[in-house]
Amino acid sequence: MYKPTIKITVKLFAAYQEAYGVPELVLEFPENTPVVAVRDRLIAEHPELSQWRDVTRFGINLIFVEPNTILQDGDEVVLIPPVSGG
C-alpha cells in the first residue's frame, strides 16, 4: 500500500554537521511524522550523536517548535545542539 511521503531539508549545525560532513540533508519521511523523528533518524545513522538526544532543540522554518510538531512537505528543519561559547 502506498504511503504518502514528505520531503524536508535538514540544516545541520555543530556536532550534527561534524558527523555528516555536510551543511544540510534532504530527507523523506512518511506524512504525519513529528520533528523529533528527524533527530532520532540522524542519531540512528550516527550513534555518536546520542549524547545530544536530550538537549537538542528543534526549529521548523526558523521558528522553535516542540518535538511533537508534525512536519509538512517542504519544511526546513534545524536541529540545534548546545553550542559552547567562546
From TrEMBL:
It comes from the Bacteria. SUPFAM superfamilies: MoaD/ThiS. Keywords: Nucleotide-binding. GO terms for cellular component: molybdopterin adenylyltransferase complex. The keyword Nucleotide-binding applies. GO terms for biological process: Mo-molybdopterin cofactor biosynthetic process. Pfam families: ThiS. One of its GO terms (molecular function) is nucleotide binding. PANTHER family: MOLYBDOPTERIN SYNTHASE SULFUR CARRIER SUBUNIT (PTHR33359). This is Molybdopterin synthase sulfur carrier subunit. It comes from Fischerella major NIES-592. The lineage of its organism: Bacteria, Bacillati, Cyanobacteriota, Cyanophyceae, Nostocales.
